[in-house]
Amino acid sequence: MAYTKVIHNSRNVQTVYFDTPASFSQWFLLVSDQHHDSINCARKLEKEHLDLALERNAYIISAGDSFDLMQGKFDPRKTFEGVRPEYTEIMKAKGNQAYLTTIVDDAVDFYKPYAHLMLMVGRGNHDTGIASRHGTDVISDLVGKLNSTIKTNHVIQAGGYGGWIRFCFSNNDGKSNRSSMKLKYFHGSGGDAPVTRGAIQTARQAVYLDADVILNGHNHNSYHIPISREHLSDSGNVVFDIMDFIRTPGYNCGYGDGNNGWEAEKMPPKPIGACWMRLYSENGKRVVREFTTSVRGAML
Among 3-7, 137-141, 265-269, which is the least confidently predicted range? Predict the structure, then answer.
């Protein structure tokens, strides 16, 4: 099922409209923390999920840190051992800007087959760190180059560190059985949280956010936590709904075999993967949300 139109309301808000039959099903792939240029990125699993998105015609939402970019100038964590072999000579011979440009261009080649399904690419701390240290907005560069490859009117939005996507559904007449769903994305904040895995942030976010789905990344953990809310309707009836909190782990296997490295020193091993969201309705009833985490143990 294809959307009918997308409105980019602001730099970090967009609205996606669907004209739907009485019964429909639409998949979405929720991702973050791909760290695509990292030598530790599980690109095989990332491609497996993206190819399944093609098969399912699933729209793709990325909540930041598409890139790792830790091996550039001014980064205290950099080591040549951490650079993918294809980038090493470029960095040594041509310098930091060529390193950044090559990484973006390689990512464009990788993501190009899926660009027509990518709704939004958000920014994470690795992406914004490069912008503040080098003045290079790698996410704008990536999205701009991907948009130039798309043969339809589809336009990927370069999102913020946080933002909103609103989905609006109606029957084919555009008027009856309207419903909507609000997704808040936020890359994430704070440290590793080895005991709670960041789940305590769901309680904090539930206080100040009014959203149906909250997508977080950043700490490379994975969970789906539904929180029920009680409301009083305009007609005086007690009704309930659910806030779905999603945390996606990404594809970086930085822990390795635990022998050395920043991740091995600072945190336990993390899962890798993403989350599938399916929105569906049967016989014109309300739109239902269904989530499936697709994660694995880190790959050596």
Answer: 265-269
Mean pLDDT within 269-284? 90
Distance CA 147, CA 279 (A): 26
CB 65, CB 32: distance < 8 Å: yes
CA 174 to chain centre: 29
* pLDDT top residue among 286 and 81: 286
- Count Cβ atoms within 10 A of the Cβ of residue 234 and give its class: 0-12 exposed, 13-18 middle, 19 or more buried: exposed
3-state secondary structure the chain: CCCCEEEEEECCEEEEEEEECCCEEEEEEEECCCCCCCCCECHHHHHHHHHHHHHHCCEEEECCCCCCCCCCCCCCCCCHHHCCHHHHHHHHHHCHHHHHHHHHHHHHHHHHHHHHHEEEECCCHHHHHHHHHHCCCHHHHHHHHHHCCCCCCCCCEECCCEEEEEEEEEECCCCCCCEEEEEEEECCCCCCCCCCCCCHHHHHHHHHCCCCEEEECCCCCCEEEEEEEEEECCCCCEEEEEEEEEECCECECCCCCCCCCHHHHHCCCCCEEEEEEEEEECCCCCCEEEEEEEEECCCC
Domains of the chain: 5-296 (3.60.21)
Tokens (6 digits) for 256: 């390795």
Q: At what angle do helices 96-111 and 125-134 cross, to 10 degrees?
A: 140
Question: What's the predicted TM-score (pTM) here?
Answer: 0.91
What integer is the mean pLDDT of 40-48? 94
